[in-house]
């Protein structure tokens, strides 16, 4: 199976949007749906009905994926709350917020304390940082440094969107966040850091990669089955 560098992942996104007619929103919708499917499947395997899910969204597109996933999880019957401390003013994100609040999903400004997270939620979806994260800055900015500390300490299982937040896209946890998610949901194709993932569940989602780009970048991936939006790797 192929693993993408940060540069190739960015190039593929640019080609999808600038050459192949995809909008940021359409990619986000498909990615978020994949993430919701993965979390719901895990909850079902664990025989957890009406699972209590905390979605933690960052200010970028990965955070948007989390907001979309929260909406779908709500419609799947889960009890969802969203931590969204940094909210962009762009129309795309404002519309995602309207969709969330229109469903009466709680939007929290701050991350609950570890003890409350342990007791109040069955699963956490980590959508803080995606493959554009720059670990070379050497630190994680506030308030996400404290949020990641909570995620690393909670007993509630975590599913990370595309990469575990705070990890270097290619080298893994070089900033020593100590975040070790139970689940990784790779989008489009796994990034190089996924080779360092030791959790229980690894899914592939984002079912939108054209064959032409697979050939261009020599990407080898398993085939999706029927109407499935995710593949368990």
TrEMBL record:
Cofactor remark from the record:
Binds 1 potassium ion per subunit.
Q: Which UniProt keywords apply?
A: Isomerase, Metal-binding, NAD, NADP, Nucleotide-binding, Potassium
Which residue range or ranges hold the YjeF N-terminal domain? 9-221
Which residues of this UniProt protein bind K(+)? 126, 165
Query: Which Gene Ontology cellular-component terms appear in the entry?
Result: mitochondrion
Sorted alphabetically, which Gene3D superfamilies does this protein's record hold?
Answer: YjeF N-terminal domain
Where (6S)-NADPHX binds, per the record, is at: 162
User: Can you provide one Gene Ontology molecular function annotated for this UniProt record?
Assistant: NAD(P)HX epimerase activity
Q: Which residues form a coiled coil?
A: none
Q: What is its EC number?
A: 5.1.99.6
Under NCBIfam families, the record lists: yjeF_nterm (TIGR00197)
Q: Which HAMAP family does the entry link to?
A: NADHX_epimerase
Q: What does this protein do?
A: Catalyzes the epimerization of the S- and R-forms of NAD(P)HX, a damaged form of NAD(P)H that is a result of enzymatic or heat-dependent hydration. This is a prerequisite for the S-specific NAD(P)H-hydrate dehydratase to allow the repair of both epimers of NAD(P)HX.
Family affiliation: Belongs to the NnrE/AIBP family.
- What protein name applies here? NAD(P)H-hydrate epimerase
Q: What is the lineage of its organism?
A: Eukaryota, Metamonada, Anaeramoebidae, Anaeramoeba
């Amino acid at each position: 199976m192929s693993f993408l560098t940060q540069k190739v992942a960015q190039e593929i996104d640019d080609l999808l949007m600038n050459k192949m007619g995809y909008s940021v929103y359409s990619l986000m919708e498909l990615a978020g749906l994949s993430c919701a499917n993965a979390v719901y499947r895990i909850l079902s395997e664990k025989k957890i009905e009406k699972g209590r899910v905390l979605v933690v969204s960052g200010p970028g597109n990965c955070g948007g994926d989390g907001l979309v996933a929260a909406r779908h999880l709500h419609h799947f019957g889960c009890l969802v709350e969203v931590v969204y401390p940094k909210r962009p003013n762009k129309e795309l994100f404002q519309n995602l917020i309207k969709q969330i609040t229109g469903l009466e999903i709680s939007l929290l400004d701050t991350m609950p304390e570890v003890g409350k997270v342990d007791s109040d939620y069955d699963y956490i979806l980590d959508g803080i940082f995606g493959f554009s994260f720059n670990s070379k800055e050497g630190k994680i900015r506030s308030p996400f440094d404290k949020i990641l500390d909570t995620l690393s300490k909670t007993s509630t299982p975590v599913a990370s969107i595309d990469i575990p937040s705070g990890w270097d896209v290619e080298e893994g946890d070089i900033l020593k966040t100590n975040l070790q998610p139970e689940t990784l949901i790779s989008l489009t194709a796994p990034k190089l850091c996924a080779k360092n993932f030791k959790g229980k569940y690894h899914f592939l989602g984002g079912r939108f990669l054209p064959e032409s780009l697979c050939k261009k970048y020599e990407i080898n991936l398993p085939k999706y089955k029927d109407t499935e939006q995710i593949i368990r790797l």
